[in-house]
Amino acid sequence: MNLRKYLKVYKKFLHTSLACELEYKTNILVDLITAILSLIGSIFLLSIFFQNNRSIGGWEFEEALIIQGIYTILNGITNTWFNPNLTEIVKHIREGTLDFVLLKPIDSQFFISLKKINPSGFLEIILGFFLLLFCIRINEINLNMSFLTLTLMTITCSISILYSLWFFISTTTIWFVKTWNATEVLRSFLYIGRFPLNSFSFSLRIFFSVFIPIAFITTIPSEVFLGLSQLWKILLEVVVASVFLITSRKFWLFALKFYSSASS
Amino acid sequence: MVQNIINVRNLSKSFDISSKEPGLNGTIKHFFRRQTKSLKVIKDISFEIKEGEIVGFLGANGAGKTTILKMLCGLIYPSEGSIIVSDHSPFRRKEKFLKQITLIMGQKQQLIWDLPPIESFYLNASIYDVDKFEAKRRIKKLSEMLEIDDELFIPVRKLSLGQRMKSELLAALIHEPNILFLDEPTLGLDINAQRNLRKFLQKYNKETNATICLTSHYMKDITSLCKRVICVQEGSISYDGELDILLKKLSPVKEILIVCRSEDDAKKLENSGFAVKNKIKNEITLKIENNSITSSLKTILNNFDIEDLFINEPPVDEIIGRVLIKKDYDI
Nearest residue on chain B to A2, judged by CA atoms? Predict the structure, then answer.
């Protein structure tokens, strides 16, 4: 894979999708307002949960805010990259325009995963980042190299798991054509990720760790942030992320053999 | 000697197709127990195409033309048989192969809808490793050939269908492919836009010696671009050869309307041994075989007092249409 070429193409993707979005200024403004209101609403909801209890599932309000911060960053990434691109796969397959993607001398997964961006999602990423900085202050967390490395590593793993899950579901469109609802179900499950996993019953914790790995998406990075996570959990997160990424890649290549293109 | 650039041997393709009975019962049955059957849409076809050739694929809707094109460019995996395009197996979609081909579909577009076409051209150029200066040169050259200039800077959504199609062509040709797969490129275009597109393709083929595989339902596209046609009927090739020979085979006689000076001359001509279609006063229509047109006309002009004559050729659409409609038409 020619990295320089891919960087150059990605620069073009950024340029064209930003230009597309800037064609509709009002839409960007509405998206930005929605992002701010959504974060305020989430923090308000969290504060209601903690109104009568000092701690839920062993997490205090100040600590739970870290999960909210990580969730906001992940939601921002979802809105910036995953949502505009991965929902398009369904359209590509239904309308047969995947033909154009497959005939380009570039990796098709790269093309359909990164072609578009929604700039308003950036605001959520920035808001989540500032919320995390605020959490560092109120939780009196020491900033050092190992903390930063582990936090970045686990958040990268979270992004990989989230992307792979979404991409996996979108790929099934090649057989089932319409699976848009499944990605919506996945998004609604991800809302659960705003709350500490320990606040759920044992059976739900198992479900959200094994079937829909919410635990790996927000809870483990938050534990790392607080210096509470054990090494085996971090290693497990890395293994899970790698397995998800490799599987989604293999699944895509396998699915393409069944692509029959849309009729003319 | 011109090399074969496309080699197809015993190619077949089957699809699993599900069918549904009408009504609510049919819908429920279809939802719970989907009945699928394997349908062979391409049946054991073989052909070669030479470098620089323009070949038209003719066939009714659903005959399998587009499926053949999609297998040739590597989008659909063949069920049986082999395809070699420019020394590559298309379905592997190797970078080197993809840089040599392009697919243009009249009913689908790859241009970014909200942006001017020039943005899509530069995006494609970066995907095909064409540097900025070379891309600029190619855009200038192709836009001159296609006669689009100001349109390059207007958002695609505001362009007319003809301007959009020209821009689609430019986007698809930015990497200077040497094999073009065109699936109904003139679909929906007005007569002038169709003519301009055909003129461009002719010029492109002449200048670059690119091989062009074309499907179209507009016979004018086929007659003005393709010397050779491949007729596809229900997934099989019913004719592969020169278009002129096909037309002669399908329409071996021409109708000649002769206006004689007088009714007597017309009567004499009627009784002279030619096959007569009809006669009205001094006008007589004869049916003459293609291979004896010249000698017959000489005889008529030398022996009869003729005021005027018209040679009527049946429209190509009509002739080809006969082949496409009738399943067991013997070509």
Answer: B129
CA distances from B160 to A40, A238, B88, B167 (A): 46, 52, 37, 11
Count how many Cα atoms sit within 13 Å of the Cα of residue B138 in the half-sphere of its side chain: 23
Pick from B105, B115, B183: which is nearest to A20 by CB? B115
- What is the CB neighbour count within 10 angstroms for residue A133? 11
Higher confidence at residue B323 or residue A156? Answer: A156
Which residues from chain A sit within 8 angstroms of residue B102, using beta carbons? 103
Q: To the nearest whole angstrom, how far is the Cα of A70 from the nearest Cα of chain B? A: 33
What is the 3-state secondary structure of chain A?
A: CCHHHHHHHHHHHHHHHHHHHHCCHHHHHHHHHHHHHHHHHHHHHHHHHCCCCCEECCEEHHHHHHHHHHHHHHHHHHHHHHHHHHHHHHHHHHHCCHHHHHCCCCCHHHHHHHCCCCCHHHHHHHHHHHHHHHHHHHCCCCCCHHHHHHHHHHHHHHHHHHHHHHHHHHHCHHHHCCCHHHHHHHHHHHHHHHCCHHHCCHHHHHHHHHCCCHHHHHHHHHHHHCCCCCHHHHHHHHHHHHHHHHHHHHHHHHHHCCCCCCCC
Q: How far is B30 from chain A (nearest CA, A)?
A: 14
A192 near B CB under 8 A: no
B103/A261 CB distance under 8 A: no
Q: Does A178 touch chain B (CB under 8 A)?
A: no
Retrieve residue B202's tokens. Answer: 């002719």
What sign has the CA pseudo-torsion A253, A254, A256, A257?
positive
Q: Summarize pLDDT for A19-52 with one digit per residue, the tens.
A: 888 777 787 788 888 878 887 887 787 777 777 7
Q: What is the pLDDT of residue B180?
A: 95
Taking only the tens place, the pLDDT of each residue in A192-251 is 776 766 667 777 777 766 666 777 787 788 888 877 778 888 898 899 999 999 999 999
User: What residue ranges of chain B have pLDDT lower than 50?
Assistant: none
CB-based contact B69:B183 (threshold 8 Å)? yes
Which residue does chain B place closest to A257, by CA atoms?
Answer: B77
Q: Which of B15, B103, B108 comes nearest A95 by C-beta?
A: B108
Preferred mutation among A100, A111, A175 to probe B, highest tally of B CBs within 10 A: A100
